[in-house]
From TrEMBL:
One of its GO terms (cellular component) is cytosol. It holds the Pfam family Bac_luciferase. Residues 6-296 form the Luciferase-like domain. Keywords: Oxidoreductase. This is Oxidoreductase. To bacterial alkanal monooxygenase alpha and beta chains. The lineage of its organism: Bacteria, Bacillati, Bacillota, Bacilli, Bacillales. One of its GO terms (molecular function) is limonene 1,2-monooxygenase [NAD(P)H) activity. It comes from Staphylococcus petrasii. It is an enzyme of class 1 (oxidoreductase).
């Protein structure tokens, strides 16, 4: 087993009874805890028109997190390029890199991160950014590169900052792009495990070395809820189940407390859906999650980094879960 790194993703969800500010404070508190635990990176998502998430102004949240942490890399999981002019993205992230050298990551996604009506409001020129994604990634690489390779329009102070770029994906399309460009690849296994195996294989097999990477660098994001016992983890994961089913029902509700009566809250079909999603997640005691991670590596091959996301209502339990996840990864690395 190679030396797998461990990191975290946060959508900045609002919990039942919280305000927007409470959710942002929780985001910072988790970042500080993961900084203490020597997590590699902490990424913040981008979502729009979602009343249960506070991750619409991703760059502002990243800067706020950088200001309140010491060592952990902070970045976007991701910036949805169809919503933004690459020049402005480069200016923002170049500014953060200037303020916080070697701590800024730029994860890039090709989806709008919202519904199509909201996406239209986000990008008023109706530009079809999904299809322009490869070219816009190249534009960003140029903006962050050396000045002597740039045209008249430059993204000051991004010039020469070389902010690391990561291609995000939940399908095989992004795997081809990341491989062709020789960039790190991050797969969203926490919500779209269906094409994960094929996407990982495509990325590794088709990877072309670049100035950035000589070998593929594969990050997989998975739901991770690790507790003292399997029973406690499954109880805490009832919150995650309610998140899944809320999405399936089209209801954007705040994160709910855990429950011992999950079957009573869900239809039989929803309950089976939730159980299936648990099978694709790292839920259990440290011993159970270690076995699940070993099984994952057996099926999907080795990965360079595990990025955990955890919907846990009690923040102290969330802290504990991430500490236990670190223990699991470190035990596999021995």
């Amino acid at each position: 087993m190679s030396n797998m790194k461990f990191s975290a993703l946060n959508l900045v969800p609002i919990k039942e009874g919280q305000s927007d500010k409470d959710a942002i404070d929780d985001m910072v508190a988790l970042a500080q805890k993961l900084d203490e635990l020597d997590y590699e990176r902490y990424w913040i998502a981008e979502h729009h028109n979602a009343p249960n998430l506070v991750s619409s102004a991703t760059a502002l949240l990243i800067q706020h997190t950088l200001e309140h942490t010491q060592n952990i890399k902070v970045g976007s999981g991701g910036i949805m390029l169809p919503n933004h002019a690459p020049l402005i993205v480069a200016e923002q992230f170049g500014t953060m890199e200037t303020l916080f050298p070697n701590r800024v990551n730029l994860g890039l996604g090709r989806a709008p991160g919202t519904d199509m009506m909201t996406a239209s409001a986000l990008r008023r020129d109706q530009h079809n950014g999904v299809y322009a994604f490869p070219e816009e990634v190249e534009q960003l690489q140029t903006y962050f590169g050396p000045g002597n390779k740039q045209a008249y329009v430059r993204a000051y102070p991004a010039v020469g900052k070389n902010v690391p770029l990561y291609i995000l994906g939940s399908s095989t399309d992004s795997a081809h792009l990341a491989a062709r460009k020789g960039l790190p690849y991050v797969f969203a296994g926490h919500f779209a495990p269906q094409q994960m195996k094929e996407a990982i294989q495509i990325y590794k097999e088709l990877f072309e070395p670049s100035e950035v990477l000589q070998e593929p660098y594969m990050i997989v994001c998975l739901n991770a809820i690790v507790a003292e016992t399997d029973e406690e983890a499954e109880y805490l994961a009832s919150t995650l189940a309610q998140v899944f089913i809320g999405i399936a029902r089209g209801r954007m509700q705040p994160v709910q407390p855990p429950t011992n009566d999950l079957q009573g809250l869900l239809t039989p079909r929803e309950y089976e859906m939730a159980k299936q999603r648990f099978n694709d997640s790292l839920v259990g005691s440290e011993a159970t999650v270690k076995q699940k991670l070993e099984d994952f590596i057996e099926e999907y091959g080795e990965i360079d980094e595990l990025m955990g996301i955890s919907y846990i209502y009690d923040q102290d339990k969330q802290f504990e879960s991430f500490e236990r996840l670190k223990n699991v990864v470190q035990s596999l690395n021995k």
